[in-house]
Structure formats: C-alpha cells, structure tokens
Amino acid sequence: MPRGDKSKYTEKQQRKAEHIEESYEEKGVPEDEAEARAWATVNKQSGGGERKGGSGRQKSQTEKRADRKDSAHRAAKAREGDSPNRGSARNNSGSSSLTELSKDELMEKARERNITGRSKMRRDELIKALS
Q1: Do 8 and 43 contact (CB within 8 A), yes or no?
Q2: Domain tally, the chain
Q3: Over pLDDT 90: what percentage of the chain?
Q4: Cβ-count burial of 38 within 10 angstroms (0-12 exposed, 13-18 middle, 19+ buried)?
Q5: What's the pTM?
Q6: In its UniProt record, which GO terms are filed under biological process (predicted)?
Q7: HEC letters along 56-98
Q8: CB atoms < 10 A from the CB of 126, how many?
Q9: 104 DSSP 8-state letter
C-alpha cells in the first residue's frame, strides 16, 4: 500500500484515484500496484493533496492540463507501439533538423554545446535549448 496519509486529498481526488485503481485492476494489475499507480497519477495531475499555508509548489491549471495532455499523448503512442525516444534510421549529417533527431542524438548535441541541465530535459526542451 502506498505510504502517506490520504486525508489531505479532496473527495474529488480520492474518487479519481479509486476510479483509476479500478481501471488498472480490470486490466489485471495487482491490487497494491494498481493503488500505487492511481495515487501517482493523481499526484502528477493535481500536485498532490490539498495543502494549506502555501507549503509545497502549487501547479497552475494550465500546468495540470499540460501534464494530463502530455501523459495522454505518451500513453496513446505507447499503445500504438511507438516509443517517443525511438527514432527511425536517420542521416547523421549536420543538415538534419532538430525535430528529426532522437532524444539520444539531441542529448549528444547538448553535451557537445555544454548545455547545463540537459540530463533532466525532455526532448522538446532539448530542441528548444539547442535552437
């Protein structure tokens, strides 16, 4: 069972976690794993339980929406068998555009340019930093 007191979560967050957990269990995921995944999803989407007094970082509605959209896109690609980090065979000459490169190739370019924070960047962030 996931650690932590769930009393800080709103009723809506708790219902969402229950729904997600049931969905995972229907797919054959063990009960404790389903619960852990459900709470992880709720935490990512809402920034955790409701906090008073300004403790913790609050996500804006825009950030939450972007996280949900990003998560949905990655899940859809995974279902299609397309990994976001897997690229097709490419010409490795310097003439290819950044959007055609894999994350590993972008990481190598960022390493060559000594871009700080590159190890924690997503693919789109690497493209922006290299542009």
Answers
A1: no
A2: 2
A3: 15
A4: buried
A5: 0.38
A6: DNA-templated transcription termination
A7: CCCCCHHHHHHHHHHHHHHHHHHHCCCCCCCCCCCCCCCCCCH
A8: 20
A9: H
Does one domain contain both 68 and 121? no
C-alpha distances in Å from residue 14, one per residue of 9, 39, 81, 116:
6, 9, 31, 39
- The whole-number pLDDT of residue 95 equals 41
Query: In angstroms, rounded to a whole number, what is the distance separating the alpha carbons of residues 108 and 111?
Result: 5
> Is there a domain that residue 92 lies in?
no
Q: Are 110 and 130 in contact (CB under 8 A)?
A: yes
pLDDT tens digits for 87-131?
444 444 444 588 888 889 899 989 998 888 988 999 889 988 888
**64, 113: one domain:** no
19 with 39: CB under 8 angstroms? no
d(CA 61, CA 46): 9
* Long-range Cβ pairs for the range 28-33 (8 Å, 24+): 32/1
Q: Which helix (H) or strand (E) holds 21?
A: helix 11-26
Do 64 and 107 have their domain in common?
no
Structure tokens at 9: 């979560």
